[in-house]
C-alpha cells in the first residue's frame, strides 16, 4: 500500500467519523427527557398549546416532554438559554414572532440573535391574529374613523401595549406608518395592566389577542374595531380585517419551534414529525380554536422562509419608528 493511499484512507476515515457518530446519536434519540422552553409566563396561549402538545409528543418519543417557562426581555432570556444547550434535540425553543423575528433586530449584536447562525428551524406551529380594541369614549366607530380622528389630532391619541418592542407595540407603530398618523405609545408590564388603563380611559386603543380582548368586547367595556390577519376572524366575523381599510396592514403573531444549530438533520426531521402529529390531534385542535389559534405544522424549510420575511418586515418598522430596546 502506497503512502498516498494510506493518507487518502486516513482522510476519508476522519471525514466519515463525525458522520457515523451523528447517525448513531440520531438513532438513540431521545435518550433523556425533552424540554420545550418558552420565554413567557405560564397561562398564555403559547404555554397552553405547548402543554397540550407535550404529552402527545412524549407518547411517541418514549421520553417525558416537559414545558419550562423562562420569561423575561420579550423572550430574550429563553432564546439565549437554548442557544447554550447541547445541539442534540433535547432542548426546543418554542417562540413567537417577538423573540424569533423582532428580537433579532431589536437586540442585534447580542448573543443568540443571529437566527441563521444560532438555530435550526423545526416548524411553524400556529398563527394568531390580533384585535384592535378601543375605549368606547373615543368617538370612532370604525378603523377609518379612528384614522381620521388621529389625523385631526396628531399626537393626542395614546395606545397601550404589553411592553416596549413587543408585537402589540409594533402593531401600533405599523398603523402609524401605513395610515400616516401620529399616535403615542404607552408601554406596560404585560397585557393585563394595559387593558386596565384602556378600560379606565388612560389610553385610547390597544392591539392584543382574541383571548384577552373578546370578553371585554362582549361585555361592552371595549369596542372592537378591526382584526389584523389576512382575513376576518371566525370568532369575530362582524369585525373587518384592517386590510379592508389599509391593504398592506397585516399583523400575524406566529408560534414556532427551533433547536440549536448543529442538531443532526435526522433529529430535526424526527422532531418535526412529532410536532406535526401533535397538532393533528382532535383535542389539541379543539382547544387551540378557543384561543383563536390557527394550527399550521410546516416543514423546517417553510418556516425558515417565513422567518426571514418577518425579520425583514419588522426590522423596517423598528428602524423607521426608531424603536430602541430598553
What does this 3D model show about the protein?
With 326 residues, the chain is of the alpha/beta class. The chain folds into two domains: 163 residues, Bordetella uptake gene, domain 1 (D-Maltodextrin-Binding Protein, domain 2, 3-Layer(aba) Sandwich); 116 residues, D-Maltodextrin-Binding Protein, domain 2, CATH 3.40.190.10. It is 47% helix and 19% strand. The chain is built from twelve helices and ten strands. Helix 2 crosses helix 10, helix 2 packs antiparallel against helix 11 and helix 7 packs across helix 12.
Q: Which features does this protein show?
A:
19% strand, 2 domains, D-Maltodextrin-Binding Protein, domain 2, 47% helix, 326 residues, alpha/beta, 10 strands, 10-stranded mixed beta sheet
Amino acid at each position: 500500500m502506497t503512502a498516498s493511499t494510506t493518507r487518502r484512507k486516513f482522510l476519508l476515515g476522519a471525514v466519515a467519523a463525525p458522520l457515523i457518530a451523528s447517525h448513531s446519536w440520531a438513532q438513540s434519540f431521545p435518550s433523556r427527557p425533552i424540554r420545550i422552553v418558552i420565554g413567557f409566563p405560564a397561562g398564555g396561549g403559547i404555554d397552553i398549546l405547548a402543554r397540550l402538545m407535550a404529552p402527545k409528543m412524549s407518547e411517541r418519543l418514549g421520553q417525558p416532554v416537559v414545558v419550562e417557562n423562562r420569561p423575561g426581555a420579550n423572550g430574550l432570556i429563553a432564546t439565549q438559554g437554548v442557544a447554550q444547550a447541547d445541539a442534540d434535540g433535547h432542548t426546543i425553543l418554542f417562540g413567537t414572532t417577538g423573540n424569533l423575528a423582532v428580537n433579532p433586530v431589536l437586540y442585534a449584536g447580542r448573543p443568540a440573535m443571529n437566527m441563521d447562525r444560532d438555530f435550526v428551524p423545526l416548524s411553524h406551529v400556529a398563527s394568531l391574529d390580533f384585535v384592535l380594541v378601543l375605549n368606547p369614549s373615543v368617538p370612532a366607530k370604525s378603523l377609518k374613523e379612528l384614522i381620521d380622528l388621529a389625523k385631526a389630532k396628531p399626537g393626542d391619541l395614546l395606545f397601550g401595549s404589553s411592553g416596549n418592542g413587543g408585537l402589540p407595540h409594533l402593531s401600533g407603530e405599523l398603523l402609524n406608518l401605513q395610515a400616516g398618523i401620529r399616535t403615542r405609545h404607552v408601554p406596560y408590564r404585560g397585557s393585563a395592566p394595559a387593558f386596565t388603563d384602556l378600560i379606565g380611559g388612560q389610553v385610547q386603543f390597544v392591539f392584543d389577542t382574541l383571548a384577552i380582548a373578546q370578553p371585554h368586547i362582549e361585555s361592552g367595556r371595549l369596542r372592537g374595531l378591526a382584526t389584523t390577519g389576512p382575513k376576518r376572524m371566525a370568532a369575530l366575523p362582524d369585525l373587518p380585517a384592517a386590510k379592508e381599510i389599509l391593504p398592506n396592514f397585516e399583523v400575524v403573531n406566529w408560534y414556532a419551534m427551533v433547536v440549536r444549530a448543529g442538531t443532526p438533520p435526522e433529529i430535526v426531521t424526527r422532531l418535526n414529525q412529532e410536532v406535526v402529529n401533535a397538532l393533528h390531534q382532535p383535542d389539541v385542535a379543539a382547544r387551540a380554536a378557543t384561543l383563536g389559534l390557527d394550527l399550521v405544522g410546516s416543514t423546517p424549510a417553510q418556516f425558515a422562509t417565513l422567518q426571514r420575511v418577518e425579520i425583514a418586515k419588522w426590522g423596517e418598522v423598528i428602524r423607521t419608528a426608531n424603536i430602541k430596546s430598553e
